[in-house]
């Protein structure tokens, strides 16, 4: 287990370093940063001053090392646009994004795992077909559209839930549900196929030959083996929910990290862009690592 | 009274046109403390018969029987819940595939203990103690260590020993073993077979052993049922069957065996020409008639078992 952990950690560090390099070079490739910082009315002299002030005249490797060195201690510099520390900008918005993402994943798991199990147990029946139809519709539905429909129905017509903002937990119900719909189809299908495969396996036949209860056969013996791909994909989906929820954050006016990323990209606020990409990448890496660890807990064969 | 009494067992798979009759009226009985072998080639319905008795047939299979009694109790109409109280408790089963029959996610100890606590209650620790004792009994060294191991850490032979020990957790009266040695190395096969025979004798188990290997039958069986095309074609005490086989199929099978002293070295072994018929529903009569040199017109009608106690299902007098 120790060597397994070490291997995964080294791999995670490599991925993080790669993303770090990409985030840095891609922002540099998007044009002359000094010109965009200075703005359209700046003179050549202004641009030259800015270039020196921000260290943009130094060789790229030197800039990169300086940035990595500062990033390592949590210093991402200052936002050009917000005139605030990038780290505090992100820290301010992270709770919103985390609440939204975790709500989304929670709802997604609560819906897709029972549905997937139900479909697998009743494979080929109308229940199974209904679940698959639901998954297909969920897959095909654009999230901004679902968000708007829900706002109109639950927010305006029924008045049950607030349509925007972040004041209370109720604010997260609708965006969380919409976000969950991006993960539900895949997770439902994975649970279903995993359970079908597990239920057809020899060890389930053994469990039945042992006279175990239906509950134990389904949840102890089958689900644990069927859960492995679900865990892996759920972690990727959570990463996506944390980083890619720009549409949802915009629709529901939640000013989370996704919204911040979008704002700073349009304003060429590269310290923020770099930092957001890095933070999200690290979150992805950590989530994947956690999923691998969790799977190793579930399946001893992965601990080698 | 016999421990297991099967009469007219029929199993079909699928529906409509594609329906296949896997077992067509199989009958046999097994006494307490007896080893009964069901022998036959692949596809003759012997494994399906064992799964049908356990109530473990795959979905889409239908089972019917004139009589299906375990210890005097009709088990053909038990609900799944009632049947699950017998399985693993009074009737246990081991399978052909030791490599995949244990759950990869749980330790040997946990998988063995749960079958004890499920049926007899008691603490997990008591169940683990029992498991360790049985692992020792099936010839596994360091049982305490094995309890904490996972299936993938064990060889096929060890896993089959674990399966056997697990089947014995609740002192079953009937053990059904479906080709328990087929997937193992030849040397391990002999060990497992010896172990089964020894446990059967020591514990007074009723052992229903499914096999395609007449050598296995000769070594361990008290009684044999020969199955062909979903029917029991001959049922006799082992010695009688080998000494004087009555059904043409059994005779054909025995001629295929290289028995030292009977078959000269280098002499060709017998073979049975033709193929097993496709058993669509509506197929009646002797399943062997298309391959049989003695076949007559009346073989196409259902043939009854006769000649007790050495039963055979053939219109030709043996």
Notes on the protein architecture:
The complex is a heterodimer of chains A (304) and B (318). Chain A is mainly alpha-helical. Chain A has 2 domains: 2-72, no CATH class; 94-303, MetI-like (MetI-like fold), CATH 1.10.3720.10. Chain A has helices at 2-29, 33-38, 44-53, 60-72, 86-121, 126-140, 143-157, 170-199, 202-209, 214-243, 246-251, 257-266, 270-298. In chain A, α5 (86-121) runs antiparallel to α10, α9 (202-209) packs antiparallel against α10 and α10 (214-243) packs antiparallel against α13. Chain A is flat. Chain A starts with a helix and ends in a 6-residue tail after the last helix. The mean pLDDT of chain A is 87. The longest helix of chain B has 18 residues, at 186-203. The mean pLDDT of chain B is 90. In chain B, a hairpin with a 2-residue loop joins β10 and β11. With 318 residues, chain B is α/β, with parallel strands linked by helices. Chain B folds into 2 domains: 4-90 and 174-312, 3-Layer(aba) Sandwich (Rossmann fold), CATH 3.40.50; 101-169, no CATH class. Chain B is built from 10 helices and 12 strands. Chain B is 31% helix and 21% strand. Chains A and B meet through α9 and α10 of A and α2 and α3 of B.
